[in-house]
Amino acid sequence: MRDAPARDTVVWLDAPNAPAAGHPPARVVLDQRNLTFIPHVLVVRVGTTVDFPNNDRVFHNVFSFRDGKRFDLGMYPVGALRHVVFDQPGLSRIFCNIHPHMAAYVMAVDSPYFARADESGAFTIAAVPAGTYTYHAWRPGATAELTGTWTSTAGPLQVTWP
Fold first, then answer.
1. Assigned CATH topology for domain 19-110
2. Does the structure show a pLDDT above 60 at 123?
3. pLDDT grade for 41, boundaries at 50, 70 and 90
4. Is residue 125 within 8 Å of 18, Cβ to Cβ?
């Protein structure tokens, strides 16, 4: 739908003067269940470890081979767990070598101010200090990333796709 918020949109603000993470970022999970990655889209701060548990009933081989973080976790069985540290900003397209229909995305951002839109396209970026920011937005299927300028005193950030 034109000019509508979109589910799974990732939005982040450039914040070059933001404080560095004071402690290691929390670990997050990209699960494998019912031959699906859950969630389909994940956004993390650079330096975050993502857990890839196999909670399915079959073997999986999780990998990302272009852009973003490149890795291949090899084949692993039900109940096994692998980890990847997303140490550089960028989009990683995640696949399973055994099940070609399985796909997910991990966007690593170099900012503490980010969010992923919910089912209705709504999102909240918490604790943003007053100021003017360059924002970025990406979503699955978009031909390009959106960027623009937003001032925190101007009201909520609205992202619409052309």
1. Immunoglobulin-like (2.60.40)
2. yes
3. very high
4. no
Please state, in angstroms and rounded to a whole number, the distance separating the CA atoms of residues 74 and 61: 5
Mean pLDDT (whole number) for 77-91: 95
Map out the domains of the chain as residue ranges. 1-16+118-162, 19-110
Give CA–CA dist 48/152, Å, rounded: 27
Q: Yes or no: say if 35 and 102 are a contact pair by the CB < 8 Å rule.
A: yes
Please answer whether residues 46 and 15 qualify as being in contact, where contact means their C-beta atoms are separated by less than 8 angstroms.
no
What backbone torsions phi and psi does residue 154 show, to the nearest 5 degrees?
-90, 0
What DSSP designation does 24 have? P
Radius of gyration of the chain (CA): 17
* pLDDT surpasses 90 at 90: yes
Q: Is the pLDDT of residue 60 over 90?
A: yes
CA neighbor of 24 nearest in space, from 56, 59, 50, 52: 50
Say which DSSP state 54 is in: B
Question: What global pTM score does this model have?
Answer: 0.92
